[in-house]
Backbone:
């Protein structure tokens, strides 16, 4: 089953949403993913529960999510805050809570079983095959999901330990084939800077960068976002939605969150936030606005968590992800793992992240990779140091 799971992951990397949504009737790609992981989880339930026990912040975060789902079905957010709720969308918006508890232990076991070796750091040949397959896909069918995939950066960074030139070439190719927006440019510059200088990211750097990013976002204002729209429309509408989401949650729910089954764009002028700034002036807000507002998402999982679960959910999620970072520090791991962590946070902070099956799979795969790497580092440090035999004459 681990081998079958690894095949599904390769297919998802190339086909992305096309694979996850394809199928016959209800049996689509994501349903196959869930069934496969459920079988592995139940077959290795003791080990999976042990992994969850070692990551209790994840369990507590998901527990709060389940409570919010219950409150949403009961209509409590509408009762106390007047939030409009459509129960038909509750599970669709909150599906990722059980998926996190299912996928992360299973993918961690998959890393332990060595069935994900095509992502193994430093495996230049395997990475070249996967990357080259994507390029061929572009040339033959004109479709390439792998280019914008954050997973490519993991082996691309670790290859720098063997060849800086190879790492730089792969990073540049990734950028040229991906969406060349502000975020991917930031990722490229940061990755290249490390490959060239070998200056590591510290925890303080990550926190300061995140705080500066939030301050910039909150200080832009609608007028400046409209100016940004002329440079990068795809980023402009997101900044607008993020600022309005945060403001709405604070001002209308006292930072308790709006729950699930509610529009992603409460407190925004939807045509400005999505249609105008995304360049889709030809679409009809009246015809498709409701569906888009309930499903499209603001392309930032951290903002979405604050928007829906409030300050409590946000703190719990950050506690989980930074607990991994603290464990990496205590295990004295290679600084490259810090960059993997940093890019993972950027990925879910600028894309649909946990709200989309394709990007959710990327997130849990990297989280599982970090958990397995931490385990390996701790196990290695616990081994007694080998003592060289004395040379006697």
Residues:
């Amino acid at each position: 089953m681990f081998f079958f799971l690894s095949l599904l992951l390769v297919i998802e990397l190339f086909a992305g949403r096309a694979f996850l949504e394809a199928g016959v009737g209800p049996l689509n790609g994501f349903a196959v993913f869930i069934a496969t992981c459920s079988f592995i989880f139940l077959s290795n339930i003791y080990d999976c529960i042990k992994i969850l026990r070692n990551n209790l912040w994840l369990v507590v975060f998901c527990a709060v999510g389940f409570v919010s789902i219950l409150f949403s079905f009961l209509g409590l957010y509408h009762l106390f805050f007047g939030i409009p709720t459509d129960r038909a969308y509750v599970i669709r918006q909150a599906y990722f809570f059980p998926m996190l508890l299912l996928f992360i232990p299973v993918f961690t076991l998959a890393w332990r079983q060595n069935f994900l070796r095509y992502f193994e750091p430093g495996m230049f040949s395997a990475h070249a095959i996967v990357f080259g397959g994507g390029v061929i896909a572009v040339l033959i069918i004109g479709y390439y999901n792998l280019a914008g995939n954050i997973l490519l950066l993991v082996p691309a960074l670790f290859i720098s330990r063997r060849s800086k030139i190879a790492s730089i070439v792969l990073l540049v190719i990734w950028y040229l084939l991906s969406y060349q927006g502000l975020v991917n440019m930031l990722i490229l510059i940061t990755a290249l800077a490390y490959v060239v200088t070998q200056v590591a990211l510290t925890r303080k750097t990550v926190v300061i960068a995140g705080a500066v990013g939030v301050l910039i976002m909150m200080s832009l204002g609608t007028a400046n976002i409209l100016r940004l729209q002329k440079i990068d429309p795809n980023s402009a509408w997101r900044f607008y939605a993020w600022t309005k989401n945060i403001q709405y949650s604070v001002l209308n729910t006292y930072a308790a969150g709006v729950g699930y089954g509610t529009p992603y764009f409460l407190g925004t002028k939807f045509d400005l936030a999505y249609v105008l700034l995304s360049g889709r002036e030809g679409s009809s807000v009246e015809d498709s606005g409701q569906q888009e507002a309930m499903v499209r998402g603001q392309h930032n999982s951290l903002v979405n968590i604050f928007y829906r679960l409030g300050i409590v959910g946000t703190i719990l999620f950050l506690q989980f992800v930074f607990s991994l970072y603290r464990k990496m520090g205590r295990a004295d791991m290679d600084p490259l793992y810090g960059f993997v962590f940093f890019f993972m946070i950027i990925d879910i902070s600028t894309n649909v992240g946990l709200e989309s099956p394709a990007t959710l799979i990327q997130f849990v795969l990297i989280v599982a990779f970090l958990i397995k790497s931490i385990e390996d580092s701790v196990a290695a440090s616990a081994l007694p140091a080998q003592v060289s035999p004395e040379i006697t004459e």
User: Anything to note?
Assistant: The longest strand covers residues 23-24. The radius of gyration is 22 Å. Residues 2-211+301-374 form one domain.
